[in-house]
């Protein structure tokens, strides 16, 4: 059961092809679709270095935030967020490849066996805070 008053940490589960939701150090859910507010894009650099060294993926990157049941209906700006440990040290804005550290809301879903993350900004000025 997810406690909506506490942050969760979400990462793409490569084996199950779904999002794994961790809270309090334990997996509390697996889902193909979830929305968060006050999202932080986190990358553990030691885990990333291990991936680069061993050429084998491990859980070292994910999104932290509070689970919500909706995001703004008409946002000012949306962008796809991606992460590739072989190319970037951080999550990036897919359209301009700038680092993404934060977003007021994110929508995370699984499509065709891949995880997709969309950052949703209710005010364009918040886009500048995300870098």
Strand order of the largest sheet: 3-2-1-5-4-8-9-6-7
Share of residues in helices: 10-25%
Largest sheet geometry: 9 strands, antiparallel
> What is the tally of helical segments?
2
Which structural category do the helix and sheet elements fall into?
mainly beta
Give the CA-based shape.
globular
Distance between the termini: 32 Å
Proportion of beta-strand residues: over 45%
Uncertain segments: none
- Cα-atom radius of gyration: 14 Å
The number of domains is 1
Keywords:
single chain; nine-stranded antiparallel beta sheet; 131 residues; mainly beta
Tell me what the structure shows.
It is a single chain. This protein has 131 residues and is mainly beta. It has one domain (8-129). 12% of the residues lie in helices and 48% in strands. It is built from two helices and nine strands, in the order ββββαβββββα. The protein has helices spanning 45-54, 124-129, and strands at 8-13, 18-23, 26-31, 33-43, 61-68, 77-82, 92-93, 102-111, 114-121. It has a nine-stranded antiparallel sheet with strand order 3-2-1-5-4-8-9-6-7. A hairpin with a 4-residue loop joins β1 and β2.
